[in-house]
Amino acid sequence: MTAIDIRPAASSDIQALIQLTHTCETSHTWQMNNLYEDGQIQVNFRRIRLPRPFQLEYHRQPAAIIDFWTKKDLFLVSRIENQRCGYLCLEIIERQSARITDLVVDEPYRKQGVATALLFSAQDWLRSNGIYRILLEIPIKNEAAISLAEKLGYVYSGFMDGFFGNREIAFFYSNTFR
Known about the structure:
It is a single chain. This protein has 178 residues and is an alpha+beta fold. It has a single domain (5-176), classed as Aminopeptidase, CATH 3.40.630.30. 19% of the residues lie in helices and 46% in strands. It has helices at 14-18, 65-68, 114-128, 143-151; strands spanning 5-8, 24-37, 40-56, 74-80, 83-93, 97-105, 133-139, 155-160, 170-176. The strands form two sheets. The protein has a seven-stranded mixed sheet, covered by helices on one side. A two-stranded antiparallel sheet has the order 2-3. A hairpin with a 2-residue loop joins strand 4 (74-80) and strand 5. The two termini are 27 Å apart. The model has no long low-confidence stretch (mean pLDDT 94).
């Protein structure tokens, strides 16, 4: 297995990170169904196959990194053989938990453990800062990210309609660790 180097982002990383492939292809999504009855509201999600693969756009413009990279509580960059191949950004919520706002792996490096390494590095950093809960926000069409969260033991913990700038529904997955 190729060694994955994880380190805090530097200003010299930003242009290379903007160039990473931020889109992904998916063949599934989750369909939301609402049921309103007397005294009851029920929301269900059902996984469905799309008629053809769909190119999922990233929920923000990659160039926005220029504006927010110094404002995040943690911004990690991954490298394989000195080639930048991914990044993770998180924000601390009231010193109790953290929220992953960005998790990007360039297409040629996907399914090689880069996202897992970034998440574990973030958890190590949080642990060293006395924080033991992490929350992932994932567009409902991002099947790869949902599968990764479930594989790593993250638990579905809710949703929000119209959460992202493109009005996409967000699934939230959380993990408590020690």
